[in-house]
Amino acid sequence: MASFGHESDVNFSIPYKTIQEANIHLIEEPPQEHDALIATLPLEPVYERPFSIVHPLRLYKDVWIAEKKLRGTLVMQHCFKSRPTDIFLTSFPKSGTTWLKAMTFSTLTRTNCSLDKHPLLTHNPHQCVPFMEVEFSTGRSKIIEVIPSPRVMSTHLPYFLLPDSIKESSCRIVYIWRDPKDVLVSAWYFTQKILGGPDKMVTFDQFFEFFCQGLTSFGPIWNHILGYWEESKRRPEKILFLKYENVLQEPVKYAKQLAHFIGCPYSETEENQHVVEQIVELCSFNTLKDFDVNKDGGRVMPSTDVRISKAYFFRKGEAGDWKSHMTREMAERLDTLIKEKFEGSGLQI
Ligand code: PAP
């Protein structure tokens, strides 16, 4: 493959994993200063189910968050200092985060990385861009501080829980959302893989019930989507609001929009050289899932104590898979619920 051949002043090409490995000495003990508060918060009512044993959710300001990630979240809210050049990739889990990380990383790195030696060939997108709440919950906040600008970081936190410094600085936020029915199906499979099979967790019908009650990691989903939507309407220059299904349909259009938004639009020369098409191809589901790095057996994640294989982030990568999993009644019920919640917002599934 040829190089992207782009020239710009953006100088960014280091996957987060490399920065982390070079700065192991900066890792501290996981924060515990908020444990007393966390212990007083409501624990999910279904805490006997296996998923909860490894990953108990607590209700914090009407959001269900895994205990461990809440530790990091609270520290982050107090300590995190945003830079004007920061880019935050935000999403509800299972809504297109992996694609967004790959696209943002490769868009910014096109100055420095040739396609045949691209970091995405050897790094999962989640190794290129860190999850803030995970890093803060595992004592890695000082590593976040040494990432060179422009930093790209991600979070599943709802808008209102972001540190003030992110909301107030001139940094950019990209949000991606997805049809909640497909989010639910994707989360169901992901959870199953983590637990080691369908017999190890609640049934799909029960999972559906929990989801409709908002009882899922970072749930309820409707508040999450609406929070970023409302803010993106108020400050479109601050938040780019993308939809997974649209991106799948017209990836080149949205790749250009993303590049423009994060401050490195494609030049005419690049457009003529089809650079954007090459990046879209590199970050496509079919390309990424076939890289060896994305097929590995995984490792135990310090943030959750569960084994997560990089392959778990690549399942089908389609819109509408819910049709193979939900009855018509279930789909209608969830659609109606979301429609009611979205009413008056101008947002539609
Ligand atoms: P995360 O929130 O845990 O990071 P996230 O990437 O948001 O996960 O969601 C995973 C979904 O994105 C999976 O959807 P599925 O279960 O319905 O298949 C996964 O297949 C899909 N996905 C991963 N990479 C891509 C990609 N490059 N393009 C499109 N979809 C992708």
From TrEMBL:
GO molecular function terms listed in the Swiss-Prot or TrEMBL record: sulfotransferase activity
InterPro entries from the UniProt entry: P-loop_NTPase, Sulfotransferase_dom
Alphabetically ordered keywords of this record: Transferase
Claim: Transferase is one of the keywords in the record: yes
Record-annotated Sulfotransferase domain positions: 84-346
Species, as recorded: Rhynchospora pubera
SUPFAM superfamilies per the UniProt record, alphabetical: P-loop containing nucleoside triphosphate hydrolases
Pfam family, one: Sulfotransfer_1
The protein's Enzyme Commission number: 2.8.2.-
Family, per entry: Belongs to the sulfotransferase 1 family.
Entry keyword annotation includes Transport: no
Protein name in the entry: Sulfotransferase
